[in-house]
Specification:
single chain; about 300 residues; mainly alpha; two-stranded antiparallel ribbon
């Protein structure tokens, strides 16, 4: 019925896997933030975008303003941009979000949605909406001929690095003492605080870490996507669907659902392109009808 060349199939699977890596990293950050803070972080896509812009500005704009010795390469941006975005997230949590923890989830959603609009508006004002290109580092340029397909080195790096980051994050939150403290803090923060744990600091750093994951994804996405103020907004709807499918607050669910849905979306674009933009939301609806807490979420 479908006469699809194997090379085209594998190429589309690679595209889907790369998208799935970004879905997994972004939804994992959302799951961490919701799991501990009960905040639906609608600014996550904008924070992803800010990190990509920081990488682009450091590489192409800063040398023009301050001189070529101030150029920030990809590897430095991969460290600095998530740290800066994470620090901005910490500032947001300390000044605004902490005032909403005792209120309904809707207030946090509206606040972070407003923050996202402000960030997008600022970058649209200074840089417009046309995309800017960002070249991958020289070490990761080119590709490898595998015989059955041509693998761009940078895209292979994105898949490897994303899976590694997801695995380390899952292990940190699920298999270490720190992760146990964080989970305990979501269940009974007052009891945990009575044992001397600084709950406000833990919450602040966790939010910063979740935002930092979006920052890492943003820097890695810059050489693949066009850097523009709306690049995060275009992903956010799908990422929220991934979080709902995996289960709100479930890190493992976010990782598995993100990767699987990226692959499914890639295959749908190959076999039935008209449905590629809605297949994720159809699956979300089916999951909500059969398991409202998500595939990996806990039923109340």
């Amino acid at each position: 019925m479908f006469d699809i060349p194997m090379q085209s199939l594998l190429a589309q699977l690679l595209v889907g896997l790369i998208n799935g890596c970004f879905y997994a990293m972004l939804s994992m950050g959302l799951a961490i933030i919701f799991g501990l803070l009960n905040i639906i972080n609608f600014a996550h896509g904008a924070q992803f975008m800010v990190a990509a812009f920081l990488a682009w500005i450091g590489f192409s704009q800063l040398p023009l303003l301050l001189g070529p010795e101030f150029k920030i390469n990809f590897w430095a941006a991969l460290i600095l941009a998530p740290l800066i975005v994470g620090a901005l997230g910490v500032l947001l949590e300390k000044t605004l979000l902490k005032r909403l923890y005792h209120l309904d989830h809707l207030y946090g959603l509206l606040l972070t949605f407003g923050v996202a609009l402000v960030l997008e508006g600022v970058f649209r004002h200074f840089y417009g909406i046309s995309g800017a290109s960002y070249d991958p580092p020289a070490l990761l340029q080119g590709g490898i001929d595998l015989g059955f397909m041509y693998l761009p080195i940078y895209r292979g790096f994105v898949v490897f690095a994303s899976v590694l980051i997801c695995a380390v994050t899952w292990y940190l939150f699920e298999k270490t003492r720190l992760g146990a403290l964080l989970r305990a803090g979501t269940e009974n923060p007052k009891l945990l605080q009575s044992f001397g744990v600084n709950i406000p600091l833990m919450i602040t750093l966790t939010y910063g870490f979740g935002v930092g994951l979006a920052g890492i994804a943003g820097v890695m996405a810059a050489p693949i996507m066009q850097v523009n103020p709306l690049m995060g907004a275009s992903l956010l709807n799908i990422v929220f669907a991934v979080v709902v499918i995996g289960g709100l607050g479930s890190i493992l669910g976010a990782i598995i659902s993100g990767l699987a849905l990226g692959l499914l979306e890639g295959l749908t674009k190959l076999f039935y392109p008209e449905a590629s933009t809605v297949v994720v939301f159809v699956i979300m609806a089916l999951v909500l009808l059969t398991r409202p807490a998500g595939l990996f979420g806990k039923e109340n």
